[in-house]
Amino acid sequence: MDAVVQYLRDHQAEHLDWARVICRIPSISTKPEHADDVRSAITWTHDLCERIGLTAAVHETGGHPVVVATHCEAAGAPTYLIYGHMDVQPEGDLSLWDADPFDPVVKDGKLICRGSADDKGQVLLHLRAVAAWLATEKRLPINVKFLIEGEEEIASPNLGPFLKDHADELACDHVIISDTGMYADGWPTITYGTRGLLYKEIRLFGPKHDLHSGSFGGTVANPANVLTELLASLHDADGRVTVDGFYNDVAEATAAEREQIRALPLDDAEYAANLGSPGIAGETGFSTNERRWIRPTLDINGIYGGFMQEGANTIVPKSAGAKVSMRLVPNQDGGKLSTAFDATIKARCPDTVRLEILNHGHADAYMAPLDSKPMQAARKALQEAFGREPAFIREGGSLPILPMFRQVLGADCLLIGFAGPNCNAHGPNENIVLEDVDCGAEATARLFKHLAT
Amino acid sequence: MDAVVQYLRDHQAEHLDWARVICRIPSISTKPEHADDVRSAITWTHDLCERIGLTAAVHETGGHPVVVATHCEAAGAPTYLIYGHMDVQPEGDLSLWDADPFDPVVKDGKLICRGSADDKGQVLLHLRAVAAWLATEKRLPINVKFLIEGEEEIASPNLGPFLKDHADELACDHVIISDTGMYADGWPTITYGTRGLLYKEIRLFGPKHDLHSGSFGGTVANPANVLTELLASLHDADGRVTVDGFYNDVAEATAAEREQIRALPLDDAEYAANLGSPGIAGETGFSTNERRWIRPTLDINGIYGGFMQEGANTIVPKSAGAKVSMRLVPNQDGGKLSTAFDATIKARCPDTVRLEILNHGHADAYMAPLDSKPMQAARKALQEAFGREPAFIREGGSLPILPMFRQVLGADCLLIGFAGPNCNAHGPNENIVLEDVDCGAEATARLFKHLAT
Questions:
Q1: ipTM score here?
Q2: How far apart are CA A6 and CA B361, in angstroms?
Q3: For A302, which of B235, B306, B351 is closest by C-beta distance?
Q4: Chain A residues with CB inside 8 Å of B199's CB?
């Protein structure tokens, strides 16, 4: 192990150059005009995989290609699928960036550019670990299969079909993903659960066209007024969601888990200040981390209707609508709650407006088995590399690929992420702390060893 | 009187040609590029006034010009200011018009074009009456001062200053306006009251930028959620407005007035069907006409926040807002209620969001004295011309010029309108029924006589 770790240290600069090169490619999957760049990023990844000793192949899908790179020579050892993605979010508002998003800069110990944290920089950690093992030990202690795609930022529309079509080729005992964050800078973190999602849109229709609010106001239902009443009814005074049966199936977190979550340092005032919010808020009886990790929530994501420009216009709008999404926790069933949501809204909506509910899909929550061997191996590897016990957290967001891997490959996922809490993924000046990157590569190299035993 | 009426009948075709000519001018005051057209319409009106025997002058204002045309030779008789406007609304969506909005068409007994009802066609009624009197009797039984402006559709920004600057020249006993509608086709109508207006905008600010609703949802206040709660709180279960003290100063309609309003035919189902609304709605305990005429209301005119495009985006929006306007009834004080509204919202708004309230102005309600001599004269004139007792109604909209005339000139207003209930003012295929126009001109000519006695 010492030689592997030494190799990583000796090759820091070279490995950083990998990041500099791949991050120059604007592989923005959300923009069709960057399709060739996504392909270039996948091809570059293929070539790097081959160079470090993996057997790699680019596969076409219905959309952007994927690369599969394997090293399966550890007879009798378990097989791990390492998933990541080489596509990135658009750069967004360039005026908010301190430099060109696709011209990587190292400053204050951070690599700053689009993709540095999400997810190019994190994919490279694992390839560094593989390179170090193969260069020094000429072997890997486990069998690995890399699956690197180019559509994560557009919700991986072709990953499910690809997994199904290549289920044998990709068969594995467990999946490893580094696409999450650290609870604090320098604090290694294992994410063991994510929330699910149920996304709806409510549209209310009143008069056939906008009405003069003077001549007609007070005589027919105003869809915008009705909408606010419907939406306001979705929470009670304690901030609990009032969709019928919403909490029925919730797998309540254990007292032990809640205690562990509450033990994580979090200053509410500082948390709110960081977000620029006047204060924290949410369901009564739960701490801030509990509210975002173990509790289901309902948020209006967008609301619209009537005259939305500057100034004043006196109309009763003909229609109004809102996008409403719920984050679900383990054991809540998105399909069942979708039906419950519709029934709740229908029951509460007066017949003086016409109601339409659109579905924008749902995804399941995910909980990794906490006592799994990979989880314990990761704990050990992270402790050794960072010199600190890892934090165990959940993530409030949704990762539909996690239940997908479980369903198609029958494999659970280990989420070890190395993006700092201020990495600004998807935002301007996305960055990753280089010390975390180096420790992360070492942790990954050590993980390979622990996973084998 | 017979000669005057006969003259009107003999000159129908000629007078219709006036409308055809003036309605060809696209005097759209809301569009700066039509400034010359507004001026042309005012100049044309000036020339017509001179041609029929009035003494006319075009006056410049800070915006579009106005024309003042007088005939004040009835010594000892009262003086009436006849107000109207020659500017029009934009044509809107051309695809909804059956013909060019500025190429007048006569079809099914209606003149169809922009301005036919609002207000060119109605201004011409009065000029026809003047022409008939002066051509036959060589005199007017009263003194008249026409004040025709070109900015009504942009809320008459220069009318107040003009009135103040020309208060002596425009001094009068009463104002007559034909810019309202008829309760039904062929049913002459006197409008004796209008509602006031108080227009606000609520803006709520949460986090400094949109947040990922998964990672952060449930931890800080969502401004869109809070907004719906605030707005929903503005009505109680009976549809009454809950702004503190909202009803304190309301001048309740008398039992007699309510009885008169309820006696007007109105089929709720038909009313809702005409508006394309699934049903009527509003404050409990009041009929549909009462709700739009004698009751104050609160409507959301526009609501916005977060992701408003097609599809789904999972954010906690950084802000959300709504435009909210209230229609006020006599004796409610817009200024006082503006303060009450702000205080109500501030008291109910949680400190987890930052609140901003914008003012978009307020206007007073107006009630004409029901027992005035002009009102009785109009009743008689309308009855004679239409062969039917006029309907007495209020209007739910606001006409800020009414309290302005009262304030600056000390004169009350008589509102006799000849636009039919389906005239579609401001909309496509605006029209006026020619028979109502002819009866309206005769009624006006008769009104001059009754006003003199």
A1: 0.92
A2: 73
A3: B306
A4: 312, 314
Per-residue pLDDT of chain A (453 residues; tens, 9 = 90+): 999 999 999 999 999 999 999 999 999 998 999 999 999 999 999 999 999 999 999 999 999 999 999 999 999 999 999 999 999 999 988 999 999 999 999 999 999 999 999 999 999 999 999 999 999 999 999 999 999 999 999 989 999 999 999 999 999 999 999 999 999 999 999 999 999 999 999 999 999 999 999 999 999 999 999 999 999 999 999 999 999 999 999 999 999 999 999 999 999 999 999 999 999 999 999 999 999 999 999 999 999 999 999 988 899 999 999 999 999 999 999 999 999 999 999 999 999 999 999 999 999 999 999 889 999 999 999 999 999 999 999 999 999 999 999 999 999 999 999 999 989 988 899 999 999 999 999 999 999 999 998
Distance from CA of A157 to the nearest CA of B (A): 15
- Give residue B380's identity as a one-letter amino acid code: K
The domain locations on chain A are: 2-194+365-452, 196-250+296-363
- Which residues neighbour A158 within 8 Å (Cβ) at sequence distance 6 or greater? A61, A62, A63, A64, A66, A149, A151
Rounded-to-integer distance, Cα A168 and Cα A74, Å? 18
Strand (E) or helix (H) holding B275: helix B268-275
Contact: A213, B325; criterion CB under 8 Å: yes
Strands A366-367 and A189-194: antiparallel
Name the residue facing B301 among A235, A315, A427 (closest C-beta).
Answer: A315
> In angstroms, rounded to a whole number, what is the distance separating the alpha carbons of residues A183 and B415?
71
Distance (Å) from the C-alpha of residue B275 to the closest C-alpha of chain A?
5
End-to-end CA distance of chain B: 14
Q: Write down the CATH superfamily of domain A2-194+365-452.
A: Zn peptidases (3.40.630.10)
Judging contacts by C-beta atoms under 8 Å, the chain A residues touching residue B206 are 277-278
Query: Distance between CA B388 and CA B189 in Å, rounded?
Result: 10
Task: Judge: A283–B232 Cβ closer than 8 Å, yes or no.
Answer: no
Query: In this structure, which CATH number among 3.90.950.10, 3.10.25.10, 3.90.1700.10, 3.30.70.360 belongs to the domain B196-250+296-363?
Result: 3.30.70.360
CA nearest A107: which of A419, A428, A434? Answer: A434
| Helix residue spans in A97-158 (DSSP H) | 120-136
Q: Which two tokens stand for residue A410?
A: 């029958």
- Cβ pair B291:A218 closer than 8 A: yes
Tell me the pTM: 0.91
Give dist(CA A221, CA B281) in Å, integer: 5
Contacts of A216 in chain B (CB under 8 A): 275, 292, 396
- Rounded to whole angstroms, how far apart are CA atoms A158 and A165? 11
Q: In terms of C-beta density within 10 A (0-12 exposed, 13-18 middle, 19 or more buried), how is residue B237 classed?
A: exposed
